[in-house]
Structures are given as C-alpha cells and as structure tokens.
Design goal:
InterPro entries: AraC-bd (IPR003313), Homeodomain-like_sf (IPR009057), HTH-like (IPR037923), HTH_AraC (IPR018060)
Radius of gyration: 21 Å
CATH topology of the largest domain: Jelly Rolls
Strand order of the largest sheet: 11-6-3-8-2-12
Protein name: AraC family transcriptional regulator
Pfam families: AraC_binding, HTH_18
Oligomer: single chain
Helix content: 40-55%
Number of strands: 12
Organism: Clostridium neuense
Largest sheet: 6 strands, mixed
CATH architecture of the largest domain: Sandwich
Number of domains: 2
Keywords: DNA-binding, Transcription, Transcription regulation
C-alpha cells in the first residue's frame, strides 16, 4: 500500500470519465499510464485488478487509485452486470508518494484544524464510509463532462472536490477512537448503526433502546455533538440514501419511499423538497447526461487541447 499526496490550490485537471458495466468474463486490460491517474469506485459486483505486485478486489464502495508508470491489469474475470465508475485526471502540482510508516504523522497533521490544508491524501485502496456523497460528485462530473460548458474548469474543480471528499473519508476511517471519552465513542457507534440500518424502519425509541439510552438522553447527545435532533439526523441519512438511489437506479419514487420505510410517498416527497429544495423527480432529472459506457472503457482516448497544451 502506498499513499498519494498533492496540492490542490490549483485544481486537478479532468481528463475523462464514465460508468462501465461489464459483460460476462470481462477483465481489465493491461496498461501503464504515462502521467494520468485513474480513480475506480465500485458500484456493483467485484472487479479484480493488480497494480504492481498488489492484487485488489474492488467491491461496491471501494476506491482504487491507479498511478502512472506502474503496470496494472485484470487478474480474474468479473460477472456480467458488474459496474464501476472510472475517472482519469492529471495533477497540476508536484506529487508525493508516502509509505505506511509516514502516513500516521501526515494524517495527524491534516486533522489539525489550526493548520491551513491545501492538499489531498489518498491511499491506493480503501473503502468509503459514505458512498452516496461520492456517487453524487461522480454523477455531477459525468453530467458536466457531457454538457457544452464554456470552460473545462467546471469538471476540473468538481474532480478536485471529489478528491477532497475522498481524502476526508479516508481520514475519518483512519482516525483512532477517543480513549478518554467512552460516551463519545459510543455516540459514533450510534451513527454507524443508523447508517448500516438506513433501509429499516428506524425511530428515536428504537435507536435509544438498542444502545440502552433513554430517547431524551439520546437527543441531548445529538444536540451536543451534531447540533440537531436524533430524528433530523435519521431523516438526513435516509435522504442521502434516497439521493443515491435516485441517481443510480431506475426505481420509482414510490419504491424508494417504501425501501426507506417512510410512512407514505407524499410525506417522503414533502420531506425531500423541504431539505433539498427540489422534488425527488427534479433531483433525478438534474443529471441526465451521465452516459454509461458498456463498450467504451478506453484509456487510449486522446487528450483534448487544453491538456496537451499544459506542461504536465
């Protein structure tokens, strides 16, 4: 495992992207990138990629970073229907590779809110704690890339935002639990339990009973730590999942409402509009130009002029 770091005061440069759906027995071709990096994020099924001497199984929510000057290839076939997002970018600042022995000090430094941070830090492989946020960024990138924007910077800034989001999720997963505050650790367990059980019928009482809290005490914990009530947090997690389902599936609004255990479709739509400023249908229609690549996962796409003219 290696860790990649670069400054993003100037945005990463977008190159190409897509969502790929595998046919039966598809394997990633053998490639060595010259200067571009590729991020792969699993959506469905498993893809098998080797980079250098390391073999990776990319499952839904897993992030794999493929780096330049290193051979990578598929070492086993994937099942039909396996799907993943892929995104190529170039760096505009000097890249730095860190080893496992260096990473702890680096993460601690990045967690210091008193120090200005202007870099991203990504391991070659890790799992997302909240795939929904990253999928939304990816949908935005695909939509903008396939729209007639007057400047390529629209996609480049979104790529940089995605990289920052991935860095934040990596840091969150790396951060060790507090040793001096058992209640705080248990509170994070509550948050994770709600996230894992997002498709179930969750109430404040159910969460409180599961952790041997009273509902009032649980709500005080949420107010203290997050500045919101327990119910508002539960609804926010369910709505994040709803956004993921809206842009990644063709399920109807009614089906999504049922999956998330809202009491009825109208209540779900009203809550969604109140929190997002859009109806579920309007949200889904916001990203129509996110083409799926079933036969065009092609790393040999030529660079556009704005990239070839830069000193990469």
């Amino acid at each position: 495992m290696i860790y990649f770091k670069t400054n993003v005061s100037s945005p990463l440069l977008y190159f190409k992207s897509g969502q790929f759906i595998c046919e039966e027995n598809w394997q990633h071709n053998s490639f060595i990138f010259d200067k571009d990096y590729e991020i792969i994020i699993g959506v469905k099924g498993t893809i098998y990629i080797q980079q250098g001497e390391e073999k990776y199984e990319v499952n839904p929510g897993d992030v794999l970073l493929l780096v330049p000057k290193t051979l990578h290839f598929g070492y086993a076939p994937s099942k039909a229907g396996t799907s993943f997002y892929w995104l190529h970018f170039f760096c505009t600042s000097e890249e730095k590779v860190l080893t496992k022995s260096e990473i702890y000090e680096e993460v601690v430094s990045m967690m210091d809110k008193d120090k200005p941070q202007d870099s991203i830090l990504l391991p070659t492989f890790f799992s997302l704690t909240d795939a929904g946020k990253s999928f939304i960024y990816l949908k935005q990138i695909l939509h903008i890339a396939n729209s007639q924007y007057y400047t390529h910077l629209a996609t480049s800034y979104l790529v940089s935002e995605l990289a920052i989001e991935l860095t934040q999720q990596f840091i969150n997963s790396f951060k060790p639990p507090s040793k001096k505050d058992v209640v705080n650790k248990k509170f994070f367990d509550v948050l994770e339990w709600i996230r894992v059980n997002v498709l179930k019928d969750i109430s404040v009482e159910i969460v409180a009973n599961n952790f041997n809290f009273t509902p009032d005490y649980l709500t005080r914990l949420f107010k203290k730590n997050l500045g919101m009530s327990t119910l508002k947090y539960i609804n926010s997690i369910k709505l994040n999942k709803a956004k993921e389902l809206l842009i990644n599936t063709d399920k109807s609004i009614k089906e999504i409402s049922y999956m998330l255990c809202f009491k009825d479709e109208k209540y779900f739509m009203k809550l969604f509009k109140k929190c997002e400023g859009l109806t579920p249908s309007q949200y889904r229609d916001a990203y129509p130009k996110t083409y799926i690549n079933t036969d065009s996962y092609d790393p040999d796409i030529p660079m556009p002029d704005y990239l070839s003219s830069n000193k990469l």
